[in-house]
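INFO batch 0412 | record 1 of 1 | parsing
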Amino acid sequence: MNRRWIIALFAFLLFFSIKPLYGAHGFGVIFDISGNAEIQGTDKTLLHLQKTKHLLYPVKVGDIIKTKANSKVLIISRRDSKGYEILSDSTAVVQEDSVKASQGIVNIKQGYYKPHDSMQQPKTGEGRPGATVIRGRRTSCIFLLSPVDTAIIDPLLTLAWENHCKGVKKYTVRIMSGTKLIISSETENTFFKIPEGILTYNENYDWFVTEDLKKNAVGGRFFLPEKNKVAEIRGQIKQYRQDKNDLSGRLSFLFFLLDNYLNDSADEEIAKLEKEFPENEYIKNLNQ
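INFO prediction complete | emitting tokens
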């Protein structure tokens, strides 16, 4: 093989190794729909978009979106978190790196949090709370409420559980870091507020609650990030709550929570969305 063929082969392999995967996995997702709109896939299948069913619908490269009068669709890119707002009476084509109008207007909007695959949560590594959100494990008659498997931003958080055991008068709560027992305390309540000075930043913790009859026990885990990271997350949460009260802002905030492993807080947001949009399977899949 001569040098020219080697160079050509190298260029071919390089092109396909760096080519974005958004065509295969989706360019982005729909964050808002108003009025009458439709999307045509590369297989020519036509879908009428409904706000009740198609929020977080995955948009692929090659899809064509059409809006009717007084309608619009907002797509958020997974690549760069830009928003592409397809306005009234417009036709737009999803390309590898943008959404382009072939008719009408597509506005580019900033300030959204990049959505990941709506069917999966990101992996964390280093033993931190992982991709699977455990909603609570029922071991006999004790059921964990919070925290279960999540990052936290309050070192003085309250541990909470439900009791369905008969005859129970008190519980023992234990918090461990690795194999080290951090605190053991008894309570008659179904909650326990962690005292000041117990938790350390940038540490993983396991916690367990056992009822006094010693027949039922259940446990959860949580992670307290570095102090600077906690301050950063708190600041971003405050900003989101002040500035992002519309639907697209709420979805952006949800992905922010998921990406920072704040699973318990994300659960609350997902529950609200499920109540508002009970027909939406993409929102339900966030709970899987």
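INFO post-check: The longest helix spans residues 227-243.
INFO record closed
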